[in-house]
C-alpha cells in the first residue's frame, strides 16, 4: 500500500465522531496541562496516561497525538509570558518572546508561535509520513547486531552529547540501566535485583518510574525552592499578527522547520540544537538585527518552528525503529507497550491502521491546536496564575493517582516516593533525567538484542560486527566518545582554525558541543572557532542574560 | 593533627559526595546481586543473565570514582532551575518534609481508608505544606477532587479505586 492511500485510511479512522472528539479532548487537556508552570510535555503525557487506559488503542493514541502537540504548544506560551522556560527546547523562544511580551507585543509573539508551530508541525508530520516507511524498509533488513549498535548509539549520544556534564550523564544512565534490570530475566527466569520481594519480580512499571522522576521529583524539588514572590504574568489578548509580522515570520518558520526535523529524527538530535541554530541564523539574516535582544519576531518564529518540527522528527525513529530519543517519546513508547504494541519495523505491518490513524491525527491535532488556541490564549494565560500550593499539591495528587491506578497497589506508591526522592537528588546535583529514563526503557531491549546477536554467533564477540551497518555505527559511537579528545588535539595543533567537518556524521557532535557548552562548567567544552563563533557566543550570552535559569539538563520534547 | 582540618575543609560544601556514595553503593549492589546468580552455560544463551548487570555495575562504579575526583577538584553539578524555582535560597526542608509526610500518610491510608479519604489527606496536607492557609477552601477543594477522581475513574474509565471505610456509602 502506498503512503497516500494508507494515510487517507488513517484520516477515515481518525475522523469518526468519537475519535475526533478524543483528538479535541487530547489537544485541550495537553495544552491546559502543558501551560501549567513546571509541567513539561513528558510529564504531561505521563500524567495523562491513565486517562487513556479505558480506551481502545486507536482512540488512545489519537488522544495522545493531541496531548503531544498540545503539551508542546503549552510550553511555549509559558516561556513567552513568564520568561522562564519549562524545558530546554523553549529556552531560545523565551529570549525574544518574553522581550516582545514586555514591549506589549505578547499577542504577536503568541500568534507567530502558534502559526509557526502549525506550519512546522504540518510539514514535519508530512515528512514523518514520507520518511517512516522508508526507514522501515531499511530497518527490516537489519538484524540483531545492527539493532544492538543503533540502541548503543542512541543511549551514548543522548548521554554524551546533550547536557552539560558527560560524567553526570553517564552516572544517570547507569542508574537507569540498573532500574531496568530489576525483575525476572526473560530468558532464564532468574530474579535480578528483586531482593526476594515478589512485587518486584515483574520489574518496575515504566509509568511509575516516569511519573516518579518527572512529576514527584519535580514537585519535591520546586517545593524546596519555591519562589516567594511569584513571577509577573504578562496579560494578553487574542493573538493576532499584522502584515509586517507575517512578512517577517514566514521565512523563519520554514527555515526553523528545515533545522528541526532532521535533528529530531537523529538519535541524539533533540530540540535544543535546532532551536539554537535557528535563532543564530535568523539573527544573521534579519533585516532588523538591532531588534534582536529587544524582541524580534524572527527570534520567536524560527525557534518555535524548529521545536515543533523536531517533535515530529522524533516520532520517526520512535515509530519506525522503536527507538525513543527524548523523554516524551520514551513515555509514549511506554504507553505503546502498555497496550501490548511493540513499536519497530513490524509495527507498520502488524498495526498499520493504528499507525496511520496516529499520523493522521497528528495532522488533525495540529490544526485543532491552531483553531482552539488562538481564541483561548487569554484563558491559558490565566492558568499561569494558579496558586502554587494548589498547583504542586495537584501534581502530587494526580501523580499518585496515575501511578496507583496502573496496578492498584500501595507498593507502587512506595516506589513512587523512593524514585521521586531520586529525581529530587538528580535535580539538586545536576544529573540529567533523560539518560535515566532512556536507560530504563532501552536497557532490557538492548540486552535482548545483545543476547540474540551472540546466540547467532555462538558466543563469538565478532558477531557484534557481523553487519556493515553495525560497524559504521560503532565508528560513529567512537567519534562521539572521543570527540572532546580529538577536539583538544586539533585545537592544540591549529589554534583558532576551522575544524574540518568529516561529512554529516562528524558535524553533529561538533554543533552539539558548540551550542550546549554555553553555561557549562566543563573545562574541555569545545567552542566554535570559525565565523559562527562570534554569533554563537553573542547568542549564548543573550541566553544567559535573559533567561533566569538555564535548564540545560531538562528533557527535550 | 594537620591533616584533619584539611580533610574537613575539603569535605565541606561537597554534599555531592553523597551522589558518589549512592552510585558506588548501587554499582556494588548490582554486581553482588549478579554474582549470586548461578546458571549453567547454555549454547542458546551464551550471554546469560549476568553479563549486563556486570557491565552496568562497572559503569556505576567507574562513574562514582570519576565523580569523586571531579567533586574533590571543585567540580559541581548545576542545580536545575525552573519557572517556580528560586535557587537563591537554600533548600527549604520545612516545606519538603511535611509534603513527604502527606505522601506517606496517603500510602498508609489508601488501602484501609480508601482513596477518597487518603486522597483528601494527601491534597490538603500538600497544600498546607506548600503554604496554603485557607483551611476551609483547601479542605473543600480536597474533598471535591478526591470524590471527582473516584467517580471519574469508576464511571469514566472503569477503574475501581478502593472505597475503604466508605464502602457502601460511595
Summarize, please:
Chain A has 557 residues and is mostly helical. Helix content of chain A is 71%, strand content 1%.
Description:
The complex is a heterodimer of chains A (557) and B (170). With 557 residues, chain A is mainly alpha-helical. Chain A is built from 20 helices and 2 strands. Chain A has one domain. In chain A, a hairpin with a 6-residue loop joins strand 1 (183-184) and strand 2 (191-192). In chain A, helix 3 packs parallel to helix 12. The two termini of chain A are 31 Å apart. Mean pLDDT of chain A is 80; it is low at 496-557. Chain B folds into 2 domains: 3-72; 93-166, no CATH class. Helix content of chain B is 64%, strand content 0%. The chains are: A mainly alpha (557), B mainly alpha (170). At the A-B interface, helix 7, helix 8, helix 15, helix 16 and helix 17 of A face helix 2, helix 3, helix 4, helix 5 and helix 6 of B.
Number of strands of chain B: 0
Count of helical regions of chain A: 20
Measured distance between first and last alpha carbons of chain B: 69 Å
Please estimate the helix content of chain B.
Answer: 55-70%
- How many H/I helical runs of chain B? 6
